[in-house]
Amino acid sequence: MSSRVSRFSYYAKSTSLTPEYYQTLLDHYWRRSGTTLYRPDQLHACCVHYTLRLDSTQFKPTRDQRQTVNRFNKYLTGDAYIKEAARLHPRSREQAKKRDSEFGLIERVHEAEYDFLQLPPEPAHVFTVTLEDDVFTEEKYQVYENYQRVVHGEEPADITRRGFQRFLCESPVQRKTITAADGKEQKLGSFHQCYRLDGKLVAIGVLDLLPHCVSAVYFLYHESIHKFAPGKLGAIREIALAQEDGYRYWYPGFYIHSCPKMRYKMDYTPQYILDPETLAWDLMDKRVTNLLDNKPYLSLSKEKADGQAAEGAKNDSDQPAAGQEESTKDPRDKADDDDDDTFLFNTGMPGIMSLDEIRSLEEMDHIKLRIDGSGLLFETGDLVAWERQDVGVSGCLKAGIAELVAALGPELLEDMVVDFWNPNL
């Protein structure tokens, strides 16, 4: 893993992540784009990124969402199939009543899939959804090219096979199959959920399947199905996957409240927002959206603390107590006397470890390193210059590793290897 700091994000490159490790990264405000991992600085960014998640077990689709699914299902099966299937495979009175009065999410998203239909008769259209490895194929690239050109308005010259492969077909998250607590097999890793209509690939959901979530990386579709609201259908199906296969949560990707194009993410409820400072989850209710409307940066824990401080100030003197000095300086604002404003400890990024916390961390001397192709791992304490260097002085190796540790947090250090040898980084 290698790393760097930009003005509004901290970046790291990765070649291999277990699904469990990446799940923890997501819950520490990280996200990936291809093999690049990044953690935004919410406090200073012009477009503040927030991590959201939806509990699929509590999801109640809106009327519009239900109608979108039902309309698409009716198109797939066709009127002739519906009439003939009712004759050949009649529902009981109880089954018919239940279907008319309830919207079973899992049942309804599969209702018109060819593999779930009662045959005969044949439907008007053959629709299949498969979970496939996230590898490049020309078939997938053609959908990507159409989507980027038609929907996103990119110039054809800017759309390349290599760009598609790097962005959506190269993931550091390892694929594997585990046995879940209920005894069912569960897939973990990076996948493409492929939607085919009459044999033609028409949409792809790029997903990271993790121990506790379906993380939506990207969704793309061919212009020929635009009228069916494929983005909405894809989101509903991903939520259903989280519920059906036991992942529970659906992560829709970073949310930028000031970006109108991202407001659609709030159509799926209930969602929870990750606090940038405490990494606690809070319900994204009307109170929170009102705060987001009026604040460039929001930490609910800070809101609560500020409210308590304001209440306490009403009963206190404006003067500091004897022997105390007022200070408006955040101890994280500057690293010793270093004035490098790209040094992570000088940025004031919320939720990262302070220099004092780094200096007191025993694990700093035991970070695993790969420095050659021998397969052997070394520790930071083995480095000749390690003891001479200071974590608070930007530019040295020790400070660079300290930045990475601060951005990750102590929970992620045990299984981390900093790679100085891999030529792919």
UniProtKB/TrEMBL annotation:
Biased composition (Basic and acidic residues): 326-335
GO cellular component, one term: cytoplasm
Enzymatic class: transferase
Region (Disordered): 303-341
N-end aminoacyl transferase N-terminal domain span: 6-67
Transmembrane stretches, start-end: none
Alphabetic keyword roster: Acyltransferase, Transferase
GO molecular function list: arginyl-tRNA--protein transferase activity
Enzyme Commission number(s) from the entry: 2.3.2.8
Location of the N-end rule aminoacyl transferase C-terminal domain: 139-275
Family named by the database record: Belongs to the R-transferase family.
Identification of the protein by name: arginyltransferase
Originating species: Glomerella acutata (Colletotrichum acutatum)
